[in-house]
Design a protein that fits this description.
It is a single chain. The protein is built from 12 helices and 16 strands. With 476 residues, the protein is α/β, with parallel strands linked by helices. α11 links the parallel β7 and β8. The longest helix has 18 residues.
């Protein structure tokens, strides 16, 4: 007579034969992907900084992205007349908004990505305008400013980036000339070259600098004549024009090759699955990262960039409700965020992933902001808060399931418990003990069908982490 095994043992045996699939799935994955976290409103505010840093430390954060506004530190930034001062001298600037945060991160051993960007001082604009603090900034003045930045922060910053979303009108104007020809790529190229030279002049011999930091979408040919600033340029069109390349990636003119440590990008795809590939081939989202790697490789073959330039995802998040236009349900936000991180991890060219916002922006009548946070604006937790330290994906291939995850706070190889909840049941049961690699990643194959899965992990200090229920998605 066959004696039935207890349910727990049935589940454990069901995954044993498939567990060996894990290491093979990691063969082409990124070998050093770090995660940048950005929470500017909370981290730059002295009253909320300590609690925010403590929360991020519990979540396993070890790297921050900080956007440094030129306007925020410059002397007499609202004057149209340039003050008389040595723009390369750090003592001429007011760094008090940023110094405490960078010092606190430095004390924790965290790495800093410093993105130096607009708004700019009015005296540094080509033609100051009432509603713009980003109109054709002076490359000469920016180069001097970057020398001061390098002298002040050079020893505390592991990675610099020059400008935030230069293909977006809110950060650099104009994007197009009135006749529809591109304007921002040439302005940005001059800023980048001057900024890079400024860092070298500060004493950093070979500065590690990201180029690009492009927004995911935009136009290639706006209606002419162009009226007003509200135009964004498609990232691949921006890349080609900035590098003096034709639409077929052939050299146009005599532009020199630009030195860079990587291309920064913000591959948002709000409201759609991370696997979604936009029909516009000039767009780069999380589901179409290969478009950017192919473009970078073509640019390198043309001699415009260093070969095999890595991708740095420096800003990303999944928009959730209550955003009425692009927000997904908060349970799906946690799932989509993990799916996006897995997409990045699978791509060996991706050097970093990111999370933009701990707390949602407030909802306003005329500006809804970003609801990509792990918490609502009220501070109440979303499922994404529990998911961030232990993200997990479940992919269904017929009757088999491929599970992937990360124990972010571990910092070393560890063991976590994967649990499954059968359809129709309200209880989770142990599925398998998974062993991570040295970076905290794990993968598992299973034939156990379920309605939801989750991860449990207890740190060596006794802190318990339980991820939210995660559903299975069909494999792509």
């Amino acid at each position: 007579m066959k004696i039935p095994l207890p349910r727990k043992l049935q589940l454990m045996f069901a995954v044993t034969a498939l567990a060996a699939l894990g290491p093979a799935a990691q063969a082409g994955a990124s070998q050093g992907q770090q995660t940048f976290f950005e929470a500017p409103a909370l981290l730059l505010n002295p009253s909320t900084r300590p609690a925010t840093l403590a929360t991020l430390q519990r979540l396993g954060v070890t790297s921050l992205r900080v956007e440094l506004s030129w306007h925020a530190v410059a002397p007499r930034a609202n004057s149209t007349r340039r003050p008389a001062f040595d723009a390369t001298d750090p003592a001429a600037y007011n760094w008090s908004l940023y110094d405490p945060l960078i010092e606190a991160a430095h004390q924790r051993g965290w790495q800093i990505l410093l993105t130096v960007t607009s708004p700019v001082p009015r005296w540094a604009e080509a033609s100051p305008r009432p509603r713009s603090l980003a109109y054709r900034p002076s490359a000469r003045e920016f180069g001097r400013f970057m020398t001061a930045v390098g002298r002040h922060y050079g020893s505390e910053v592991s990675l610099f980036s020059i400008w935030n979303e230069p293909n977006h009108h809110e950060f650099l104007e104009p994007q197009f000339n009135r006749n529809g020809s591109p304007a921002s790529p040439a302005v940005y190229r001059a800023l980048y070259q001057a900024g890079y030279a400024g860092l070298q002049a500060s004493g950093i011999g070979s500065p590690k600098v990201l180029i690009g930091e492009t927004a995911p979408e935009g136009e290639t040919a706006p209606r002419v004549p162009v009226r007003g600033p509200r135009h964004n340029m498609a990232p691949l069109a921006f890349l080609r024009t900035m590098l003096c390349l034709s639409p077929h990636y052939h050299r146009v003119g005599r532009c020199a090759r630009l030195a860079a440590s990587g291309w920064g990008l913000h591959p948002y795809r709000s409201g759609a699955s991370p696997y979604f590939v936009p029909s516009n081939r000039e767009t780069v989202t999380i589901g179409s990262l290969s478009r950017m790697t192919r473009a970078l490789d073509a640019a390198a073959r043309a001699g415009a960039l260093t070969p095999h330039l890595p991708l740095y995802i420096t800003e990303f998040g999944v928009m959730s409700r209550p955003n009425p236009y692009q927000g997904v349900p908060v349970s799906q936000q946690a799932e989509y965020q993990a799916m996006a991180e897995q997409i990045a991890w699978r791509n060996a060219r991706v050097a970093s992933f990111s999370q933009y916002l701990l707390k949602d922006d407030p909802m306003r009548r005329r500006s809804v902001g970003f609801q990509t946070g792990l918490e609502y604006y009220s501070g109440r937790a979303k499922p994404a808060l529990a998911a961030f330290p232990v993200p997990m994906t479940v992919t269904r291939h017929g009757s088999r399931y491929a599970l992937w995850g990360l124990v972010r706070p571990a910092g070393a190889a560890t063991t976590a418990t994967v649990e499954v909840r059968r359809r129709g049941s309200s209880r989770f049961m142990p599925l398998a003990e998974v062993h991570t690699d040295a970076r905290g990643y794990w993968s598992l194959g299973s034939t156990v069908a379920g309605g939801a899965w989750r991860v449990r992990w207890t740190s060596p200090a006794g802190v318990r982490y339980t991820g939210p229920p995660i559903r299975a998605y069909r494999g792509r």
